[in-house]
Write a structure and sequence with these properties.
Chain B is α+β, with helices and mostly antiparallel strands and about 375 residues long. Chain B is built from eight helices and 20 strands. Helix content of chain B is about 25%, strand content about 35%. Chain C has two domains: about 20-55; about 70-310, MetI-like fold, CATH 1.10.3720. The chains are: A mainly alpha (about 290), B alpha+beta (about 375), C mainly alpha (about 300). The interface of B and C includes residues 1, 65, 66 and 152 of B.
Chain lengths: ~290, ~375, ~300
Amino acid sequence: MADQMQSQGASRFGRVLVYALLTLMCLYYLLPLYVMISTSLKPLDEIRTGNLLSLPVSPNFEAWIKAWSGACSGVTCDGLKGYFWNSIRFVVPSVLITTIVGAFNGYVLSMWRFRGSDVMFTALLIGCFIPFQVILLPMARTLGTLGIANSTTGLIFVHVVYGLAFTTLFFRNYYVTVPDELVKAAKIDGAGFFRIFWRIILPLSLPIIVVSIIWQFTQIWNDFLFGVVFSSGEQQPITVALNNLVNTSTGIKEYNVDMAAAIIAALPTLFVYFVAGKYFVRGLTAGAVKG
Amino acid sequence: MGALSIRDVRKSYGTQDILKGINIEVEDGEFLILVGPSGCGKSTLLSMIAGLDSITSGEVHIGGRLVNNLSPKDRDIAMVFQSYALYPNMTVRQNISFGLEIRKVPKAEQDKIVAQVAQILQMEQLLDRKPSQLSGGQRQRVAMGRAIARDPTLFLFDEPLSNLDAKLRVEMRTEIKLLHKRVGKTIVYVTHDQIEAMTLGDKIAVMKAGEVMQYGTPQQIYDNPVNLFVASFMGSPSMNFIPCQVVSVNNKLGLKIETGGQTHVFPVDAKGLENYMGKEVIVGIRPEKITHKVDFLAGAPNFYVAESLIEIAEPTGADTLLMVKMNGKDVVCRVHPDHARTHGERMPLMFDMSKTVYFDPLTELRIA
Amino acid sequence: MTTTRATSTIKASDHSGRTILDWFENMLPKIVVAPTFLCALVFIYGFIIWNGYLSLTTSRMMPNYQFAGFIQYANLFANERWWTALRNLAVFSSLFIFGCLAIGLFVAILLDQKIRAEGFIRSIYLYPMALSFVVTGTVWKWILNPGLGVEKVVRDMGFPDFTFDWLVNPQYSIYAVVIAGLWQSSGFVMALFLAGLRGVDDSIIKAAQVDGASLPRIYWRIIIPSLKPVFFSAFIILSHIAIKSFDLVMALTGGGPGFSSDMPATFMYAFSFTRNQIGMGAASAMMMLMIVSAVVVPMMYSEMRRTRRG
């Protein structure tokens, strides 16, 4: 009896400890978000007199307005809004193209295998792992030669080429779990390549399509490397503009504007995350656990 | 003109030979079973008949036509899969009519065919459901319905009952048999279950390691197995194999059998055994041929009584299976439960040697 | 022969030969994947070869294709900044990977204790992954701001002599990057471990409990060893992120102060695009590729051997 009481007490203490630690971790992860938001709502003098943790005395959105339409990023001082639309302009087509092509690729590599198709898949898989530094220089030259350097088209091109490996991987790993016999039955019924895809495979692809779109959107929107190397000036994505805004040291540092700008840049992916989060996790773990 | 003709068909993957020359002729309306252990090639053969797998060499004729290079949809076949393979996003009705749709059958006729099929299989009320809303047995029926709707020359079944639980399996087996009688089409059915093979087939092809070991009717295969493998594969519980020395007794042949602590000589009358005088042969005797002693049969020719020590007794309700030792081997006997003794006890057993088969211990082929 | 209904619904092919249509249907899958495969061939493998060749030339602002041997690699390894970058990579990678694994595993174990509101907590740990490294870098640049950031908070709490100027201290700047990186990626590792923990067979744990093992011991001796594949996957991905670190460094420190927090990726960018030393830049990129291969390939190989044997 005493044993039981003791173990009950111990386990209760254990659970309290677990919750306490979890709460601590929550604070660790949430703190920067809090700091970001609260700083963006404070005027500059309050930032200087107060500290990171203090709540804004009278929150105002001036920093936000400035970040959106008045802050200086690089040469121009029109805020982030132009760059926001830049990002949209190349992210959306890239996501759509890589998802559609990836779906077809995954379909072929899992259900219409042919001699060499597995080698092809491995070759693509390896492509996911290379550090992109090795293709920056050749790609820069190629984009120049094709006349699409510093353009939305160029960015779409780059993101599509290097995004295909990921989407193909997602779809292929998903379609591999669909039983072979479904395709065999369809072949016997007389269905051909496209009809099988359209009538049978596509209708059951919704989960992986969502994963692919969310993953690609997040990756491409958040990309910085391709943005900074392959575009300049007015064509840059929002991530590059944000970096310029924060790191150009002309005059006084406006920390509240910096934070507001960061939030603006993060909003789309954060929004997608909170709305469709569980698909996001599925995407991360699906691609990852496969190794 | 047979419905299906398989002529010297072989299949190899590189240097590996999966099928080593299969020859089978199936008449119109016959129910052929391809049975064998995993890896014997039966499913591969079925895939090749269907056109889902390529034929390395040999010819397959369906309905008199050479189909080697035809795609599955042109071979006039229909297939039912182990996992049913129903299209998950379509209703039962759409599943059945999908093939018809592709072949541009007019809508009115499609509806008629679907209604007919639903009536044959008694699934009218399921037509608007999706596969996920159906039970295993219902799904299997839909899969069969899809096949029937095509009205093909040849029906192919790939272990269709393996995913069902035991009770359902027995029910569906009967339904398939009834269907065959009703529809009268040629069926090729792959299974690893020898009970299905025996109960359903008109002809059985027992396969092992890419070859047909024996081809014949169920009773032929059961009573006259051509080698040890076929004998051991068909029948449950399986045939007993007892190594015995052939001896001479009273100028007749006999088998030396040691059981229950005593040595007996069972006189046998089997042509072919003379060549093995003094040597060891493998005696194959089915459990149901070893029963309790029935007095009026005890002295009859081919019947022999010997007392054995019971090692294990397994009552199944209908009979009791007794395990005894003969010549050092475990032998299963089927005894009426009223006469069965229990383990540790001795009991006189009666052996009906009339259907016994004999095998050469080295070649495993049937001698007599 | 065939029944009358059947002949009207099947395509009459009396001959057993193939048609052009069959050939096309056969080629269709190959045609569909061909563009992607060609892209990979040209834009991945082709470019790697091109870049490799560039690294063997004396290209400066414009590429010249005269073969010059390994001179750029010699230059690379004679360059103090490159050595700093490599040193930083080693420091960052080990701390980042180890830290993420430790935090991730720890938090996953906590979450595995049948916590209420687990989904909610999980989404809090994971949201940093949805952020760009640039955003992370920007925020942490502010948090670690010498004078107005963490330093001020602690001072305001009553420790007037506390200094935290890692961001502008050449000795410690790389550790600031570690802090930000850990914050961003540990949640992801947590998600991986949680999925792995969930996959552990309940009956094994019950058997251990019946044997009398305490919970910590069960974790230590049974569950954690069974997570080996997850460790493996997480390690591969984390080392990948670590080696490629560019966005975070640029946003947080710009590689500075000076080049004290430089990493191979920022080095490559600087030399290729700012300092007009394409040959050196290409060489540094090839080195990065080799580093990634050196980590990923042996792991994949040992994993394949293990699964083949096991």
